[in-house]
Specification:
The chain is an alpha/beta fold and 344 residues long. The protein contains twelve helices and eleven strands. Helices cover 35% and strands 19% of the residues.
Length: 344
């Protein structure tokens, strides 16, 4: 899958399209990806590609990787150009640190967050719809890009559709490692068509018109420079390609949720430029494209989490069906679902 990935990647430093993978002698799934233009190298260790700009690179990991494979680097004529002063100097570093922490901690891990009755119910309802949409066109080879994959949460909600490859990335190396481990544990054969790597959502590293689908599930509200992010989404979509996702909605009931979060946090967030997303914002960011939205989830997660998984699912589904028919309430669900088909 790494070779397939390199066919559609661009360098995160200079945006050049010519990247080469050099596998180290005597090492499985270990080597470097090198940009032909700027000569920047990116480590591949135990099958995980760290494809980050200098400002977000894991400097200590790179230094250790270089020292451990010095002979291989010398054969390739590559030096260790890392500079600790360049690291962690931008807003996205806060997100990186937050989600590295969320990968594993004593309060709530991202996996335990995913497995709460509320999110299991929400995920099930959302991805039932997306899987039906994806299944409508199974005739040719297709590519899905997931921006902000965490530990595989959303990717593994996408069924094994015929001729669909999923390339998913996240800014957190710790979460991506968990996604790769999850892949190894859950894949029953060598035909799994998911590829996880580490990269930054604010500079999406894919070639223009390379993706049939782009999925961003609960990630936009963590990012900075959203105008550019949305422009990049449209850029990498093929004509007729589809973007879909879900975000925190700018509902008038948000104050209730915020109060409950102060009393008893259901999860731990680190918002970027915009903590809440509205239809008007999306229309502005995706200028020139038609964005369709609807809101969902009309109950606080703190209440839903009191029930079993199956009861929580039925409760969310029932209240969605009920409140979506009421004019005032239907636009004030806690989440906003987003759908865009790129113009031909």
């Amino acid at each position: 899958m790494l070779n397939k990935l390199l066919e559609i990647l661009i360098c995160v430093e200079c945006r050049d399209e010519t990247l080469h993978y050099h596998c180290f002698e005597g090492a499985d799934n270990t080597g470097v990806v090198v940009c032909s233009k700027c000569k920047r190298w990116f480590p591949v260790e135990d099958g995980v590609l760290e494809f980050l700009p200098k400002e977000l690179a894991y400097i200590e990991d790179r230094d250790k990787f270089y020292s451990s494979n010095l002979e291989q680097f010398e054969k390739l004529g590559l030096s260790n150009e890392s500079n600790p002063e360049e690291a962690l100097k931008e807003a996205q570093s806060k997100q990186q640190q937050h989600f590295d922490w969320y990968a594993e901690n004593d309060i709530q891990s991202y996996t335990s967050y995913e497995r709460t009755p509320f999110w299991k119910g929400v995920d099930r309802i959302f991805f039932d719809k997306q899987n039906k949409m994806i299944a409508k066109s199974e005739d040719s080879q297709r590519i899905m890009v997931e921006v902000g994959c965490a530990q595989g949460r959303a990717s593994y909600q996408i069924k094994d559709h015929k001729n669909l490859d999923i390339f998913a990335f996240d800014i957190s190396k710790s979460l991506v490692k968990q996604a790769v481990e999850r892949q190894r544990e859950e894949s029953k054969s060598s035909t799994d068509k998911r590829c996880f790597f580490v990269s930054d959502a604010t500079r999406i590293p894919f070639k223009t018109k390379s993706a049939d689908f782009v999925m961003i599930y609960g990630v936009l509200h963590h990012l900075t420079g959203l105008q550019q992010v949305c422009s990049d989404i449209v850029r990498i979509l093929k004509p007729g390609g589809i973007f879909f996702g879900s975000e925190n909605s700018s509902t008038i009931f948000r104050s209730i949720f915020d109060l409950l979060q102060k009393i008893c946090p259901a999860w731990y967030d680190e918002p970027g430029d915009e903590s809440l997303i509205s239809d008007e914002m999306l229309s502005g960011w995706f200028k020139g494209e038609t964005v369709k939205t609807n809101t969902t989830v009309f109950l606080p997660p703190h209440l839903v989490n009191l029930f079993s998984d199956e009861t929580a699912f039925k409760l969310i589904r029932f209240t969605d069906s009920l409140f979506s028919k009421i004019p005032f309430l239907k636009d004030n669900g806690g989440l906003i679902e987003i759908y865009l088909r790129k113009k031909d």
